Amino acid sequence: MSTLVIVESPTKARTIRNYLPSGYQVEASMGHVRDLPPSAKEIPPAYKDKNWATLGINIEDEFQPIYVVPEKKKKVVKELKNALKVADELILATDEDREGESISWHLLEILKPKVPVKRMVFHEITKEAIQKALQDCREVDQDLVHAQETRRILDRLVGYTVSPLLWKKIAWGLSAGRVQSVAVRLTVLRERERRAFQSGGYWDLKADLEQNKNPFEAKLITLDGKRLATGSDFDPDTGKIAEGKNVVLLNENEANKLKERIFEKTWTVADRQENASKRRPSPPFTTSTLQQESNRKLSISARETMGVAQKLYEKGFITYMRTDSVHLSQQAIAAARNCVEQKYGKEYLSPKARQYSTKSKGAQEAHEAIRPAGETFRVPKETGLKDREFRLYDLIWKRTIACQMADAQLTQIAVDVSVENAVFRANGKRIEFPGFFRAYVEGSDNPDAALEDQEILLPPLKKGDKPDCKGLEAIGHETQPPARYTEASLVKTLEKEGIGRPSTYASVIGTIVDRGYVQMRGKALIPTFTAFAVTALLEEHFPDLVDTEFTSKMEQTLDEIATGGAEWIPYLKKFYQGKTGLKTQIDVKNEEIEPAIAKTIHLENLDAIVRIGKYGPYIEIKTEDGETEVLKVSIPDDLTPADLNPEQIEALIRQKQEGPEKVGIHPETGEPIYFKVGKYGPYVQLGDKTDENPKPKMSSIPKKDSKTNVTNDDVTLEMAVGLLSLPRLLGHQPATGGKIKSALGRFGPYVVHEFKGPEDTKLQRDYRSLKKEDNVLTVTLERALELLAEPKRGRGGSKKTPLRELGAHPEDKEPVNIYKGPYGNYVKHGKINAGLPKDETVEEITLEKALELLAEKAATKKTTKKKTTAKKKTTTAKKKTTKKASTKKTAAKKEAS
């Protein structure tokens, strides 16, 4: 007896084939084999004359979809049909969610099998899971199929009716989507808040204190018994202290006077409080939380995360990656607890097995969280995985075992120090027991580094102590607008609001970026002018389509359809037909909406008229010659509403009317130097752009401060010549002979040391950012060497003092030091930390022993790198061989002819 098993992908097919008995043939459908017509040419001839044909849905007959086999899938379907001809049984083993159920149903519809059919589902691809699934097959779940079909039809109805309206009223090629448009609106709402935000300024004092030669910091918190103002006390609409806030607001002059008055006075510890607290580990990953944490910690986008997770699942490394559930099976809990006990010891286990409950709205099909697959969890370094697959598996492995670890026990310390009528507070944090911090700290990819940041040690201060004030600084602050969305925070908001499904977030974010609704700058999602125009039109004329509550209720209905609790055809009729249906709204709004109004964008705190034109956004102004004359100024492609301010507009208009402003003539080349404003801000350009000189040299101009761009009045010829000369050679590093340069980069001015080590063939670069007081055009070699001598600082804060310096590493001459950690001492070299064995003391350990520990810790990383390099060399060699063979063949052919 032969059995045909159909899965979605070749990778999944290869993995499953290893766990099935002989006589089983596994084939891949390559995803969906049928779908709605993707274009007009794909519509079957029998339906082309129907007025609903372009939708691909017969809205006149119970919303029956017209499914077609795409051209690229016809070969796959033919191969599957041929395989089925010689099979005695068909098993559909597609994924266990709605999409997988739909693929199985489509396969049934198109293959029309005459042999027995089974539907096999599993949550992980392991031998045990597959063999168990073979014994527990079922039929295709029609409710899940209808839920997926309803979702697909809804998306088509919205996209194929609203998008053409956007083409007519705003610009050709725009698109709308049921979830996409809500996601875009969220980014626009946030940007509107930022533009309307009024910043408020306030000052405070920071004291550098010392008790028995132990330094610590304290910040001013009260004055005359009244709390000092902080950012949370300001009204974002006015930039002033909010009504009802009884606080002291210091300006710069008052802060400096207070500083002078109290600096040399007596400082006394007035109070010390310690409060014990616990931190519980986060639940194991769901689709949404995996996307968020992967973006935060690994800087991998939601779309890429899902692609990597899909491969890990299909290769049998993790459980199914599309899930809303945080539940773990007893098998998984036992495996995680076994890992904890073996790696960290029994004391790091939670007293009882932890089980988490799902809080998201309507958690759906998959019944377990994302975790390592199998009865025992493979340690990351033993998997043979590389690059992103390794990093993501490592993240999942750590999060899973951490959830079965003991709570972290902390002590929060607050010490109040009084001086005259002012009270300063020093905050500390002591880790009594690290618990799950040993394995995983949310938001950090390096548990050792994260633990260093978690603990803030204070001297053993007690009431009545009189610490010495070594320094006192007045610090100015400005309140900040709400942060822009990142992929992680947008995914979190969509899930919280119940919009879409976590499995679709990756494609939704990818779509709004690809279609130009948002730009990615670093991790921030910044809406474009197109996003503002489309959102404004939808808000005014189709408010339900971009309303989070309406979209959330739609998701709830789809969940009810999936469980058989709602009928899908009546719901579609209500949504699309009738007096309030989408079709009627489209017909009415098509007549009502005026393109001129729809193309106009109104921005907070900006009087200029901005419109969307055929070739993109532009500014429109009336000229001084008369009211009938208007001037249109194109807005650079990468300039967003976030960048547009009155100064920027003035510069663009002046550049349009008068051409770029000439700063002067370059003293050496004789070419003109122009001041221009581009998509990345103001810059200077040497010479004109011509056919002979298509890319004239340019250099960005540093901002005057964190907010203000320079204007043409700020740029002198000397400055322009200096900027165009960057990077500037300052001299050579005495020890290496390497060049020291100053330059401007994406993140501001910096100095760089370019060098080669004794055995290096590749040029190495060591960078340091310039400080506020440094000038990229005048910084000296001595100052650059001083900056380069400073250790690089991580995001978490200040440099940590080593317990002992062992010496320089023989390979790169970087220091090898011993540090104190919250759960033991460790040796550190570069980014590698290795814990000291229990039998080794700080005083007795040698540099040689430390190097052994570091080498052992780094072994996995080095092995992976060597394998990757070897593979690249092999590939290159093969390519060269192929190229030589091809050249010989060509030469032979030429000789023969």
What does this structure look like?
It is globular and about 90 Å long. The model is unreliable at 362-366, 794-798, 860-864 and 887-897 (pLDDT under 50). Helix 5 (142-169) packs parallel to helix 18 (582-592). The chain has 897 residues and is of the alpha+beta class. The strands form 8 sheets. Strands 7, 8, 9, 10, 11, 12 and 13 form a 7-stranded antiparallel beta sheet that branches. A 4-stranded parallel beta sheet has the order 2-1-5-6, sandwiched between helices. A 4-stranded antiparallel beta sheet has the order 16-17-18-19. The longest helix is centred in the C-terminal third of the chain and has 50 residues, at 847-896. The chain is built from 23 helices and 31 strands. The two termini are 57 Å apart. It is 35% helix and 21% strand.
How does the SSE layout of this entry go?
Elements: E1 3-7, H1 10-17, E2 24-28, E3 57-58, E4 64-65, H2 74-85, E5 89-92, H3 98-111, E6 117-119, H4 127-134, H5 142-169, H6 180-196, E7 201-211, E8 214-223, E9 226-227, H7 252-262, E10 268-279, H8 287-298, H9 302-314, H10 330-344, H11 387-402, E11 408-419, E12 422-433, H12 447-454, E13 468-478, H13 487-497, H14 502-514, E14 518-521, E15 524-527, H15 529-541, H16 548-562, H17 568-576, H18 582-592, H19 595-598, E16 600-601, E17 609-613, E18 616-622, E19 630-634, H20 646-658, E20 661-665, E21 672-678, E22 681-686, E23 698-700, H21 717-724, E24 728-732, E25 739-745, E26 748-755, E27 764-769, H22 781-789, E28 804-808, E29 815-821, E30 824-829, E31 832-835, H23 847-896
Parallel strand pairs: 1-2, 1-5, 5-6
Antiparallel strand pairs: 3-4, 7-8, 7-13, 8-9, 8-12, 10-11, 11-12, 14-15, 16-17, 17-18, 18-19, 20-21, 21-22, 22-23, 24-25, 25-26, 26-27, 28-29, 29-30, 30-31
Helix pairs in contact: 3-5, 5-16, 5-17, 5-18, 8-9, 8-13, 9-11, 9-14
